[in-house]
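A quick aside before the break. I want you to see a complete sequence-to-structure record at least once, exactly as it would be stored in a machine-readable document. Don't worry about memorizing anything.
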Amino acid sequence: MKKSLWVILPVLVMGVFLISESVVNATHSWGNYHWARSSNPVVLTLGDNVDGSWDPMLVTSEADWEQSAVLSLSIVPGETTARKCRAATGKIEVCNDTYGNNGWLGIAGISISGEHITSAYVKLNDTYFNTPQYNTTPWRNLVMCQEIGHAFGLDHQDEIFTNANLGTCMDYTNDPSSNQHPNPHDYAQLLAIYNHVDTGGSEPPCRGKGCNGPNAVEFDTPGEWGRVVERDGHGRPITYVREFGNGKRQITHIFPLAIGD
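That is the input. The structure line, written in tokens, reads:
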């Protein structure tokens, strides 16, 4: 794991490009949500509940996000079923299954207490990834990378699929070829999000449906996600919040199908 991180930017000085070691002015935080910790880096595990078709993408995403100076990541055996994909407190579970023709390629769900993420899950929808259009390494890398990025508190850099690619997995696109990995702006935003430490105790351990609130919900459908709080650049709902009281809520972010599908 890297102990420090410099974002390398080209700077034009007297007609000559020099290298400046500075942090990008990053602005794509997801509602100031972050994992509580008493020191940096924040130590997190990615629970492997994916099959062999997704294992290379999980390894790639873990290595990509591990480049952040404020994250210490490891892949561990999953502790849930791929279908339910429920995370225990302090865990990020990553799952794939045929979740149905529901319009989403991937989901990132985070449980929140105040502004602190207490658990997270990622679902990858093989109903679409088993089709020729999406069954490609670039599409799989993009969606895996983006959904895991949401689990750290990152939002998108752009939400219009037809815009030019920004070279980051935190960008919606119809062509994932150059959007498979984080870019310097993502690492700079993580530095901004985690530039402080937290005090106080952690959430008590919790497993099962009750961790997400008092009701037995699976968080697979809009009816279970709660109210829409954000739409993409094409007007489609992409972020939902369900309140459970006492500062606890579940936030669900979906990766919709590419425009034209």
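Two observations worth writing down. Residues 57 and 144 are 7 Å apart (CA to CA). The radius of gyration is 18 Å. We'll return to this after the break.
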